[in-house]
Every structure is written in structure tokens, then in C-alpha cells.
Amino acid sequence: MQKGVDYPGVCVVFFCHDGKGSVVLAKRSLNARDEQGRWDIGGGGLEFGVTVEETLRKEIEEEYGTEVLAHEFLGFRDVHREHSGKSTHWIALDFKVRVSREKVKNSELHKFEEVRWFALNALPSPLHSQLPGFLEKYRDRL
Asked: CA nearest 128: which of 139, 112, 104?
């Protein structure tokens, strides 16, 4: 049984910012599971027995090599899409997270081509397919 395919998976999604108007995005490499070459905010699946906050902190450390300075739960999204010809269903728990701009780095070189800071009103292209909906839903809180 595969989470997100055979039953709904649960994930944390994090919009990391520096508190000064910039957001960090990662460009997905050819080794990424899907949406290669697209810019995305971070995320990771919730594992049995691990709390949401522990998952949030672990994933940010794994992806960006830094710790959480502050976080705010924004809400959730019911995410339905296609992946490798299969329908997927994820419940995304969305967070706004402040991190240290100076400490952020690409800690998953196998998964990301690069990690870079952008102004919220000047995001790169192409974006991950789910990012525009995230930005629209939470724009007044980002």
C-alpha cells in the first residue's frame, strides 16, 4: 500500500521566508520524483508516530540545512492530482516558516538543482503545479 495513492497521504508544506519580504524556493532536479525543473516551496510526508511539528522541523533541516525560527499554521489543502499515470490524494498541512537567510543552503543536492531567495512579487518560472493555488489561498497571510 502506498500513501497518497492507495489511501490519502498527509504532508507538511512549508513556505520559508526571512521576515523581510523574501521567500526561499528550490528548483527540482532531474532526480526529483516529479515536476523536474520547476520551482517549489518545501514539503514532506508525515510518518507514523512522528508529530506534525517534528516533521516540519526535520524536513526543513533536511532540505535547507537550517532550523525553524518561528512557524504559523496557515491551513490545509485537499490536493488531488496525477503522478506517473495514477491519481493521488494528499492532505497538505500548510505552514509559513521564518528561517535564517544566512543559514539556508541546498542540503539535498540529489533532489534540487539550486535553492535561491526571491521577492514574493518576483517569483521565477516555471512554478510547481500546486504553488499558484497555495499562493492564491494564503496571499493575504504571506
From this structure: 112
> Domains along the chain?
21-141 (3.90.79.10)
Q: Find where cell 517569483 sits.
A: 123
pTM higher than the cut 0.90: yes
* Cβ–Cβ under 8 Å, residues 114 and 26: yes
pLDDT of residue 83: 78
Q: Kindly tell me if the per-residue pLDDT of 57 is higher than 90.
A: yes
In sequence order, which residues have a C-beta less than 8 Å from that of residue 38 and are 6 or more positions away?
Answer: 27, 28, 126, 127, 128, 129
